[in-house]
Design goal:
The longest helix is centred in the C-terminal third of the chain and has 25 residues, at 135-159. This protein has helices at 4-26, 29-45, 53-73, 83-88, 94-105, 108-118, 124-131, 135-159. It has eight helices and no strands. Helix 1 (4-26) crosses helix 3 (53-73), helix 2 crosses helix 3 (53-73) and helix 6 crosses helix 8 (135-159). The protein is 77% helix and 0% strand. By secondary structure, the chain is mostly helical.
Length: 160
């Protein structure tokens, strides 16, 4: 069981990661906040010992994805637009803004692996373990996601 110091340390280190994974999965800031809170409540209640910090991070991401799936399955849940959240963000350049919108427009099966690979810097095998899918599936999802991103960004470029 975690001590208060350990929990506080993990919460400070990984709260942003958990929130970003949840937001990427469900595209709702309010729901991502709820999922983040539930995940850390589960961490606080967890009785098993973790092998390392990497083990804790993987566990948190896996629990986050499970919580998101549970939320999506709930009958009362409605998908909200991410534009409200995006309006509150500040981007370093217009290119960063375009990339954010292009990634968020991807289907979930491509968006989540792309986020985990490029933002959280997980390997394809680690993503496969987290998402509980074969490694080749992750490779295919990354490839197709990149192709869709490239096409979307080229269309934006042509439009501008």
């Amino acid at each position: 069981m975690l001590t208060n110091e350990q929990f506080t340390s993990y919460a400070q280190r990984y709260i942003d990661t958990v929130y970003r994974v949840a937001f990427n999965y469900i595209k709702s800031a309010a729901d991502a906040d709820d999922v983040t809170q539930n995940v850390f409540l589960k961490l606080l209640q967890e009785r098993k010992d973790f092998e390392s910090d990497a083990h804790v991070k993987n566990w948190l991401i896996r629990v986050t994805i499970n919580e998101c799936k549970n939320l999506v399955r709930a009958r009362w849940w409605r998908h909200e637009s991410y534009e409200d959240y995006a309006a509150a963000l500040t981007f370093d350049s217009p290119a960063h803004s375009e990339l954010f919108y292009a990634v968020m427009a991807l289907p979930k099966k491509y968006r989540v692996p792309i986020y985990l690979h490029y933002y959280e810097e997980y390997s394809t095998q680690e993503i496969a373990d987290i998402l509980m899918v074969p490694k080749n599936t992750v490779c295919t999802q990354l490839k197709r996601g990149r192709e869709l991103l490239k096409k979307a960004l080229q269309e934006v470029e042509e439009y501008v």
